[in-house]
Write a structure and sequence with these properties.
By secondary structure, this protein is an alpha+beta fold. It contains 12 helices and 11 strands. Strands 3, 4, 5, 6, 7, 8 and 11 form a 7-stranded antiparallel sheet that branches. The relative contact order is 0.12.
Length: about 350
């Protein structure tokens, strides 16, 4: 908008919803903004936009959606004025001390430790289109699933030999405390305020806010974990070369595996941090428990509803400086490169959970 651009905009992705698009993105852009929940929906919208007969109807549908979204937002705002959140705040729990306040850097995290944490439902189902994923992967008679498993394993082994899949991680704990809706992080030696972030608070019970999960300063303060992980060097050049060579599926598998391997590396780091922080996962803790976050605490990544300000990435990177340590940099839009990277804040409080304001 600032550059005078007003061409139609299609948005989607895990962090977005249609309502967010209509109420947050569209009002800040001068052209039409459409939410595409998945690729084929985006293609359908694009086709209608390019069709002179269909375009007016599509724009009329968008205007109706915008009007309805505004009406809902105004109704919610009116009800919120009458009902100010009275809950939330710090709930007293034992506050574990981190093992240290040093920087932890690990290159070459063994693949055999990270691969078991790979979310195969996401990899095979969301990225590779395998239907009834869990059942299909366990069915030896499902030839498509079995062939896909073999091809994925072959790509992983080839990429590992090429040095593309080489998980790395950088993490540390820092003194921090909660103050209303704000999280304040302090320098470990001087106590100087490094950053002050404001987080959204739920408009309904239990009126949660991420700041509630850090003990206030007047009660002794707390600590917050920060980390950045990556699956390794950017796989995009190799994926592009494979595509040019006609290895279309291998190219797609490589990109998909890298993204999920970054998430698996984040799970590896988070599990390590929980153990070092003094509350390891209990005996018998399963992969299903892990993916359902049945552990103490939570990790939040910027850009999601409970932690929406993607611009805060610049502060996190200023503190950790992962660029020269694990090769992850930020774009002007505060996105990480390589794309197969994850950053997060780690909380110990048992009340920590994902939510939408």
């Amino acid at each position: 908008r600032d550059a005078g651009i007003n061409v139609p905009l299609l948005v989607g992705g895990a962090a977005l919803t249609k309502n967010f698009t209509l109420t947050k993105i569209a009002p800040n852009y001068d052209g039409p903004v459409f939410y595409a929940g998945e690729a084929m929906h985006g293609l359908q919208i694009a086709n209608r936009l390019m069709d002179d007969a269909e375009r007016p109807a599509l724009l009329a549908e968008l205007e109706r959606d915008l009007q309805q979204a505004r009406a809902r937002a105004e109704g919610i705002a009116d009800s919120e004025e009458a009902a100010t959140p009275s809950g939330g705040g710090w709930r007293e729990v034992d506050v574990p001390a981190p093992p240290d306040l040093d920087e932890h850097l690990q290159h070459g995290i063994p693949l055999d430790e990270v691969l078991p944490l790979l979310n195969r439902i996401m990899l095979f189902g969301k990225y590779l289109g395998l239907k009834n994923t869990a059942r299909a992967l366990e069915d030896p008679e499902n030839s498509r699933a079995q062939e896909l498993k073999v091809q994925v394993e072959a790509v992983i082994q080839e990429a590992a030999r090429m040095g593309i899949l080489r998980p790395r991680a950088l993490w540390r704990w820092l003194p921090a405390y909660g103050e209303g809706d704000f999280i304040i992080i302090l320098a470990p030696r001087t106590g100087e305020e490094l950053v002050r972030w404001q987080f959204p608070r739920q408009k309904k019970e239990p009126f949660a806010c991420a700041a509630d999960w850090l003990r206030p300063r007047d009660r002794g303060g707390d600590h917050l974990g920060l980390f950045v992980t990556t699956a390794g060097p950017d796989p995009a050049p190799v994926a592009a070369r494979w595509k040019e060579e006609g290895r279309l599926l291998d190219s797609h598998i490589l990109s998909s595996v890298a993204i999920e391997l970054a998430e698996a590396t984040a799970e590896w780091v988070h599990r390590r941090m929980r153990a070092d922080w003094g509350f390891p996962d209990p005996p018998g803790f399963t992969q299903a428990d892990l993916f359902k976050t049945r552990y103490r605490g939570i990790r939040l990544s910027f850009g999601y509803p409970a932690c929406p300000q993607i611009e805060h990435q610049t502060d996190l990177f200023r503190i950790l400086r992962p660029e020269g340590k694990i090769g992850v940099v930020l774009t002007e839009g505060c996105m990480m490169q390589p794309e197969s990277s994850v950053s997060a804040l780690v909380f110990h409080h048992p009340d920590g959970h994902y939510f939408s304001p």
